[in-house]
Design goal:
heterodimer, A: alpha/beta, B: 1005 residues, Alpha-Beta Plaits, FAD/NAD(P)-binding domain, five-stranded parallel beta sheet, 25% strand
């Protein structure tokens, strides 16, 4: 693992429409600053996040992936999508290890519509952690899965 | 008689007013929603979380705010007050004054630049004065309407806002205006005001900085509040270690003329204590000083138990007499009496759970509307007409009729909406405008031709992101044939311009790069639709809220990010397909299950609105539980009302009553149900558009305290019958509360038994004052205005003795002589009484048929066996399944007036469906490719809405989406092993393209 000072990790964030996307918006409305490393993709529910989306992100050079949804147990707009996400992500983290991708690169968080600050903190933490981890091992030598 | 008008004025834009407005507007009536403040939302917008689910308040309220703000049938009249009312039910003339905002609402687009540049600091009233805002402001970031207002008292007239406002919205010389409107009915929902804690000077509020009110504490706890969600002490910003909550500040206090209970404070006090513990990183001691814990709502006691067991919150039954401050530390000393011992304890912060009082303008409203107020200046209502004021055509909901929590306010609001509609039912649809769209262009054979519109948002985006660079970048992307920048893409004139460009460049996909789709997508979809494109051929890139605003000091990186975001949505847009909004027909008929007071009321309300109703009752008689109620606490005659209700139902030509019958089968979905009704005369099939469940509940049959084994042990219901028949005689009576309630097996409160006990105790004292009556209780839960009857009972000599689970009373029978042994906590002695009668306040059990009904309708039950609504806070009478509603005791134990509110509410919610010939469903739903489907049923089991059914076709079983039930979460598609099922507008292909394009540069082919 290299620690390059000028390395800027690329993060893909899948945010559920109802809580987490709204939380990210609130960070904006409150002008809470965080590093510009994340590209957000809106989905209706964290339960919609297919492992294939996450693998596609890593395959195309993402250094980290954030999946964020409504708080457990009862905030989910679709009753239980967040539970489904939590199970899927846990499984995928194990699978990533087998592919040579550190499971810490994939993070699942619950962010409510009033937690703009929390969202910003998560992005800051991820950027810091990914800087320590270094680039996505799949892209280091220009390789693909 | 003057002709009727198909519009309604709703006064007050809190959660109750919002709910009433939405129900009315969705049922074909024009609504004018008037609020005295500059935005709607009321007190709920200020709350951090809500009990008993700890849902974030703004998360659940904001979608309703947005829906209200953009509803074509709702006109918002903010910063306004009523002046005069003339006319009568069906045809009123309302005059109101709109105070100047000094900002042109038509022009202001809410970009907020003015507020950022304003040099003035004023106290932020939304944050309860705990932080500052500018002189030009919106109350809160999610405010609806998002229109700024100038606080002229603070404004120094420097002209900065006028200089920076690119929309030219500042209007310093704007005048107040007076307007008169014709409306058919009126709903009053002005809400409440928190009690001014300064009146209780001994508690030190206003003198000691670390004594705050509960509403201030909500703001302190809120992530968007003054301290960013950390519970901090106002005096020094330190994290408190020891926090006290004092209940009943301004409630249950006859000394200051507040002899009622505010009904919601126990629960919000417990909630704030729990949330505080969650928000404070260190160990926090929370102590709650109370008189009785009134956790009388659905699942509230379970929450109270968790507060004690899981969160370790300490509950002290005592009234704090006095608070002093240590001037060095700003810590507080609380003086109180516990177990008869005077005690002093130090805390570092105190929260006063302030009660609700009527709004300051209550008397003025009463004068204008000519309505009666009660002795406490709340709006007077009656047990059997809980949403009616004393003036016909003027209805009431929310805390203005009595202190209440959010779900009860919401239910009453829908109930008031039902009543407001019935008197003008003939005018439905006459005041609203149906929108016409041009025919949709078929783009299926066209290559993608994308137009990208990049918004400056004044300087909100262009101050950080280089907009020209972004536009230049976007126009070079594959498939993009047009790009331009706008000062405000959302402004009215830009909408016209977008439509022109669509025609001029033959665009078939449109992208707006600006703010967030959560607030603006609907607007742009509308624009696209008006130009003949399918509304789903539109995407947004959020380059403001999630880019320029959060990377203010990194313009270069922000510009690159904006480019990536646009490239990403362009890749998605290329693949976008037109989506069809399924349209389904509606059978304008209701099915009501259960013929008690709730079922009959719901049926009548639907019939009054012009819909046919099938009312199915299992027994031979209408009336249900109400047949057993002989008198009420408030002194009204239930039998008279029952008879009148039954007559109205039987004589109503639209109501088809089925007695001694049962609904055996319900098939179909919203708008299109088919059901079988079984009776002795055989089976009948009926078609209907909605179902209302009003199956009621039963009195619990006690197994405790010798019930059934000793003749002198009876239930409250049996006592009531004896009292009514004059058959009751006793020298001494002991009542035992919470029999079968608040136990390990049944943790929740049965709500009505305290009222029943007080009612029967008073009745005994009326007929034989010399009879001794003891009430052994855990907490006396005479919430709201029932408190005064508790006081009355105590003053008539009824003796109330507290017991707890460690020392339950014991009942024995010695040769037919009853003995009750209990602990008297004040004199600290065991006492034995030999009463003639022991009366058990038996809990309320769910109807034994509930389980069958829940399975038949595929709707859930709570652990206790009552029906579980769609959302405990904001959808109290809806089920998660569209078209199925709930009311009365089937929902949870409740009093008659509360059942009637819910029954009317269920009718109002049902009429939002029945009033439409067809329903247009959301287009973003799941879709199955039958060729790929292997029929594995994984999606069927995962779908939380039972929206997937398996179809057998010749050789193959495949999944099929019931369009009317699908909510568009996409969980099914994610799990599908063959990728046969996917979610429209969020297809796997679209998202994969979006992911790739967010990361990898593309060049035009």
């Amino acid at each position: 693992m290299s620690e390059e000072s000028d390395f800027e990790p690329k993060i893909i964030g899948f945010l559920c429409n109802w809580c987490s996307y709204a939380g990210a918006d609130l960070a904006g409305v409150s002008r809470i600053q965080y590093p510009p490393n994340i590209r957000i993709i809106r989905v209706m529910c964290s339960g919609r996040v297919d492992p294939a989306f996450i693998l596609e992100a890593f395959k195309n050079g993402a250094d980290g992936v954030l999946v964020a949804g409504c708080h457990l147990p009862s905030d989910c707009h679709y009753i239980s999508g967040n539970f489904k996400a939590s199970r899927r992500i846990a499984l995928l983290q194990r699978l990533l290890q087998d592919l040579g991708i550190e499971p810490q690169r994939l993070r699942l968080e619950w962010v409510s519509a009033s937690e703009g600050d929390k969202f910003a903190t998560i992005v800051r933490e991820m950027v810091e952690q990914l800087k320590k981890l270094g680039p996505n091992p799949l892209t280091k030598d220009g390789g693909e899965i | 008689m003057a002709e009727k008008i198909g519009s309604v004025m709703v006064v007050g834009g809190g959660v109750a007013g919002i709910q009433a407005s939405l129900d009315l507007a969705d049922s074909g009536f024009k609504v004018y929603l008037l609020d005295k403040s500059s935005s709607i939302g009321g007190v709920m917008a200020e709350l951090d979380k809500t009990f008993p689910t700890n849902d974030c308040s703004m998360c659940i309220l904001a979608p309703k705010l947005v829906a209200t703000g953009r509803h074509p049938n709702i006109s918002l009249i903010t910063n306004a007050e009523l002046v005069d009312l003339k006319g009568q039910a069906g045809n009123f003339l309302v005059k109101f004054r709109k105070r100047s905002r000094y900002v042109d609402e038509e022009r202001c687009n809410g970009c907020g630049l003015c507020s950022q540049k304003c040099p003035v600091e004023a106290l932020d009233t939304f944050n309860e004065g705990l932080s500052n805002r500018s002189a030009i402001y919106v109350e809160y970031p999610q405010a609806v309407p998002l229109k700024y207002i100038i606080d002229r008292e603070k404004c120094i007239g420097c002209g900065t806002c006028e200089e920076v406002c690119k929309a030219k919205a500042i209007a310093y010389d704007q005048q107040d205006t007076e307007t008169t409107l014709s409306v058919g009915s009126i709903i009053l929902a002005p809400g409440f005001e928190p009690f001014d804690a300064r009146v209780k000077s001994e508690l030190g509020y206003g003198k000691f900085p670390n004594v705050v009110t509960s509403i201030e504490f909500e703001r302190i706890l809120s992530a968007s509040g003054p301290y960013g969600g950390l519970a901090l002490r106002p005096s020094d910003g330190e994290v408190p270690r020891k926090l006290a909550f004092i209940q009943c500040v301004g409630s249950r206090d006859a000394q200051i003329n507040r002899d009622y209970c505010s009904a919601a404070c126990c629960m919000y006090g417990i909630k704030e204590a729990i949330i505080a513990k969650e928000h404070v990183p260190v160990a926090l001691d929370c102590t709650l000083f109370y008189m009785d814990i009134r956790a009388h709502g659905k699942e509230f006691d379970a929450y109270y138990n968790r507060a004690q067991d899981e969160f370790g919150i300490r509950f002290v039954r005592s009234r704090v007499a006095n608070i002093t401050e240590d001037p060095k530390t700003n810590n507080l000393h609380l003086y109180y009496v516990e177990e008869e011992e005077p005690t002093t304890e130090e805390f570092d912060m105190v929260v006063l759970s302030v009660g609700m009082q009527p709004p300051a303008e209550a008397s003025k409203l009463a004068n204008i509307f000519g309505i009666e107020l009660n002795g406490q200046k709340f709006c007077q209502t009656r047990m059997f007409s809980p949403v009616e004021t004393s003036r016909p055509g003027v209805f009431v909901c929310g805390a203005f009729s009595s202190p209440k929590d959010i779900p009860e306010s919401v239910a009453q609001a829908s109930g008031a909406a039902a009543k407001a509609m019935s008197i003008i039912a003939s005018e439905r649809g006459k005041e609203i405008v149906a929108k016409e769209y041009p025919p949709e262009r078929d783009v299926s054979q066209e290559e993608p031709r994308i137009g990208v519109f990049v918004c400056h948002c004044g300087i909100n985006i262009s101050g950080t992101v280089s907009v020209p660079e972004v536009v230049d970048f976007a126009t070079k992307l594959p498939s993009v044939v047009y790009g331009e920048a706008n000062l405000y893409t959302c402004s009215q004139d830009t909408q016209g311009m977008i439509k022109e460009k669509i025609q001029e460049h033959n665009l078939n996909r449109v992208i707006v790069a600006s703010c967030t789709p959560r607030t603006h997508e609907a607007l742009f979809r509308e624009t696209v639709r008006e130009s003949g494109l399918n509304p789903y051929l539109f995407e947004m890139a959020n380059i403001r809220d999630q880019c320029s605003w959060v990377h203010v000091h990194q313009p270069k990186e922000a510009t690159e990010k904006a480019k990536d975001l646009i490239r990403s949505v362009v890749a998605k847009a290329r693949l976008l397909k037109p989506l069809r909004r399924p349209v389904i027909n509606v059978t304008p008929t209701g099915l009501v299950i259960g013929g008690g007071v709730s079922g009959m009321t719901a049926a009548l309300e639907l019939a009054n609105q012009g819909f046919d109703v099938h009312l199915v009752e299992r027994t031979k008689n209408l009336g249900g539980h109400l047949r057993e109620i002989r008198y009420t606490l408030e002194g009204e005659n239930p039998r008279e009302h029952l008879d009148s209700l039954v007559t109205q139902v039987l004589e109503n030509g639209r109501i088809h009553v089925y007695l001694d019958s049962e609904v055996a089968e319900v098939n179909g979905f919203v708008g299109n149900f088919k059901s079988k009704i079984n009776s002795e005369s055989g089976e009948k099939e009926v078609e209907h558009g909605v179902v209302i469940v009003a199956t009621g509940a039963k009195e619990y049959v006690p197994t405790e305290y010798l019930y059934g084994n000793a003749p002198g042990v009876v239930t409250q219901r049996e006592l009531e019958e004896m009292l009514f028949n004059g058959a009751f005689k006793a020298e001494s009576v002991v009542m035992i509360q919470c029999v079968g309630a608040r136990t390990r097996e049944r943790p929740n409160c049965a709500r009505i038994c305290c009222g029943q006990a007080i009612k029967n105790a008073l009745r005994i004292k009326e007929t034989s004052p010399e009879t001794d009556v003891y009430v052994l209780y855990k907490d006396v839960r005479s919430y709201g205005f029932k408190e005064k009857y508790y006081r009355k009972a105590a003053s008539k000599g009824v003796i109330f003795v507290n017991y707890n689970d460690d020392r339950k009373p014991e009942v024995s029978s010695d040769g037919g002589k009853l003995k009750v042994l209990f602990w008297e906590p004040i004199i600290k002695e065991e006492i034995t009484l030999e009463p003639d009668t022991v009366v058990l306040s038996a809990a309320v059990s769910p109807n034994p048929d509930s389980k069958r009904v829940s399975e038949m309708l595929k709707v859930p039950l709570t652990k206790d066996g009552f029906f579980l609504e769609a959302h405990m806070k904001l959808r109290p009478v809806d089920f998660q399944t569209d078209g199925v509603f709930l009311c009365g005791m089937a929902h949870s134990p409740k009093f008659i007036d509360e059942s009637i509110c819910q029954a009317c509410a269920a009718a109002a919610r049902a009429s939002t469906i029945l009033s439409k010939k067809t329903l247009e469903m959301e287009g973003i739903i799941a879709d199955v490719d039958e060729d790929l489907c292997s029929g594995c049923r994984i999606c069927e089991h995962l779908c939380p809405y039972s929206a997937i059914e398996m179809n057998e076709k010749q050789t193959k079983v495949t999944a099929h989406v019931l369009e009317a039930l699908c909510k568009g979460c996409g969980v099914c598609g994610t799990a599908c092993p063959t990728k046969a099922i996917t979610l429209g507008h969020f297809t796997t292909g679209e998202i994969l393209a979006q992911v790739k394009a967010a990361l990898v540069e593309e060049v035009r082919a």
